[in-house]
Amino acid sequence: MQLHKYEKIWLSFGIASLVFFLLLLGYGAFYKGTHPQSHAETIDPNHVEANVSFQPEHLGLNKIAENRYVVNIVASTFNYDFGKDENGNPVKNIRIPKGSNVLFQVTTKDVVHGFNAAGTNVNMIVEPGYVSSYETVLDKPGVYTILCNEYCGLGHHMMYATLEVYE
Amino acid sequence: MGITKTKDQQRFQEMQLMIPKSDAKMYMSFIYVAFAALLIGGLMGLLQTLVRSGKFTLPFGIGYYQILTVHGVMLGLILTTYFIIGFQYALMGKTVGISQKQKKAAWASFWVMVTGTLLTSGTILLGKASVLYTFYAPLQAHPAFYFGLALLVIGSWISCFVNWRQLYVWKKKHPGEKSPLPAFMVVINMTMWFIATLGVASTVVIQFIPWSLGYAATIDVLISRTLFWYFGHPLVYFWLLPAYMAWYVIIPKIIGGKIFSDSLARMAFILFLFFSIPVGFHHQLTEPGISPTWKFVQVCLTFMVVIPSLMTAFSMFAVFEITGRKKGFKGLFGWFKHLPWKDVRFLAPFIGMVAFIPGGAGGIINASHQMNEVVHNTIWVTGHFHLTVATTVILTFFGISYWLIPHLTGRKLTPQINRLGIIQTIIWTVGMTIMSGSMHIEGLLGAPRRSAFSTYGGTAQAHEWAYYQLAQAVGGSILFIGIVLMVYIFIKLAFFAPRGNEAFPIAEEDANAQPTPMFLENWKLWVVITVALILVAYTIPFVDMIQHAPPGSPPFTMPIGNN
């Protein structure tokens, strides 16, 4: 099989760029730890409370140290459970100071959901039987829409909350 | 070992097989269904963009997700599969012939597929299967939906067997000769389709059907999704390869040129067979329960298709330039200026090729491991596949229709219809640029795909997204005009155009072309390598999923209104 000279140049350039690109992705993933969410922890979707993180008192925002937070969320059709505030109302907005290190832990009691803080890289599929988790530093102030981005049923687009990063 | 010239010429004469009327009827049956699906699915697409603009609500209690399911199933599964199978039969019939027995089996394939299609569509229309075309568990549709899908796949398998048999019989009669290029390509595509659909067939038959009938109490969600995406990515190459067939074999003839390189075309198709299937994890990059290392392995395998894509791009432009220079066009770009821009059989597929440049670049972003989380399940992805499948593939299929349909119905593509076709192509290009462009931008701003209109509690972000959704409704409306025009052209070509002989354009090799090496026809080797790559990419993570499986999921029918 014979290749035209220009085609050899074209393909060599293409393949070299491809290798360079994959090395770059691999470097980011394996040395900088930027792998996509791939948490392997399992959970019984019928008894999510068996995992201490998803007991009612631990849902929502938990401050664990200066500038370190854990946010636990239970998703179900068509709601994110961030726990309740002092008045017993469901929390729909969480506020986190700029520059904090935040760990999001999400699981579902029923079907597959998405968990995306739109405009950030916090973007996960939440599957029954698994805990999805994502650790990040939130350093851009603003109000971000948290929404379900994996179809979960007729009320899918009504499943949302907000995340506020303040100065 | 090469093949002598005289044999080549002899072979090419045989490629000019006439298509008898009764064969043409069979090929056309598939194409009728495809265009019916285009009209229904297209109308649903229009309604979706209108609903999501926030300015329109659906009447009669029709649900957004119901029409979204119809849209995905009609255009993603029905239009594509039927058109491809019909077109591939025509290519096979033209180059290697079809026997009476094979034709009977092909009709059986058609009717099994139609039964499946009616079953699935009926269930969706009754509102019992608003699960979208990906039907992710544990959302549960009515069992008829899954039975219909199974029949659709089984019907397409009969076509696989027929196409394989057609080439096998031809090769027995022509020992030592290389197979005609179009037949080689069809067999590659059907081999890939068969291996890939084993995944979706096993999840439907082993997991979904028993579970939907109540024989199995629970379903393993991650395994069902993994089997789906084992099929879901090769599905897009199953759409793309017939477009490539037209680019490699048909377009050179239309512009008055020769095939650039027979062996290169075959090599590209073999590489697509290898690297289409062991790559499904790149649709599951943000999912829990799959090790990131295995995700990365499949990301690397995904990117191998860049190589045959670059080969194809080079071949296309080489054919354009060689043909133009042979015709005596001078200057650096003279050959480009004089391409047959006014021939819709060329223009529509050409715009398809151009759309594949941003389409392919977007695909690279989507599959880029950690970069995927920037766009995963945002409407960027919808914008992406409206460039690739709904522009590159569909405009090429339209380009094929302009000559294939009159060829099969014994009519002519008249200058008037050609002009209408050019207008159709321009409408499509404008509509898609607006719709897909605004989807891409809105996706980068974080807006989700597959969602009805929502203000998300009135956030500033959602307010900003609404402007792009308005633009999508404008683009979607323009596209729908394009669909109506295309259906009109189809009806004209099928029933009303003047009688005549429209050519079935198949390009020849150049007289001084290098002989094609015979190792390219080593089918056993190609299948063994394909299966080996699949086993490497999937065995360990799949065993891991089974061993570390969480408790299974019971059915959920309420969320989709199936109660």
TrEMBL record, chain A:
Alphabetical UniProt keywords: Copper, Membrane, Metal-binding, Transmembrane, Transmembrane helix
Domain Cytochrome oxidase subunit II copper A binding: 66-167
Location of the protein in the cell: Cell envelope
TM stretches of this protein: 9-30
Catalysed conversion reaction: 4 Fe(II)-[cytochrome c] + O2 + 8 H(+)(in) = 4 Fe(III)-[cytochrome c] + 2 H2O + 4 H(+)(out)
InterPro entries: Ba3_CcO_II_C, CcO_II-like_C, Copper_CuA, Cupredoxin, NosZ/Cyto_c_oxidase_sub2
UniProt protein name: Cytochrome aa3 subunit 2
SUPFAM superfamilies the record matches: Cupredoxins
